[in-house]
Amino acid sequence: MRRSALFALAGFALPGLVCTALAQPANTLTAQFDANIHPDEVRDFNKFLSAEPNHVSSPHDKSNADWILAQFKSWGWDAHIETFKVLYPTPLDEKLEMLGPHPFTATLQEPPIPGDSSATAKDPALPAYVEYQGDGDVTAPMVYVNYGGVDDYKRLEQLGISVKGKIVIARNGEGWRGLKPKLAQHHGAIG
Fold it and tell me: Who has greater pLDDT, 112 or 97?
């Protein structure tokens, strides 16, 4: 695999590339860089790195790091891996149910995409959860908040709908996902 494919996919900013850029016109450097990127290699690299669940501390995450390190060393780089201990909470169990006259239990896992071998790799995949959420059970009425953005809460307020003490359900998209729980909490939601 060519280095350029690895760098192009991984998005590394290379000091050597910057130094070279200073010595050559931008269009020459861009053309040289582009000529060394081969879509098949980028595809294969991406498939290799995403073949198994690779969240923090997973076996595949470690094997990816070791493989990338070996690539750098094979190119003559003085490279090494640094290890940091970080707080990365993982759930022991999780369940999402809707109670009432029409009970529903969510699967919390999307079905695999036919033909995508990485979508069927489940072990040691993490279950669906929100990092740093509180432990315990939350039972409350639900309120749909569209995308869960600032304007959505303003509209609910205009309609006289409060999310205080309730569980909010938000659509994916239109804004950063981390803002959705923050805004829900800010408006008094408990889940």
Answer: 97
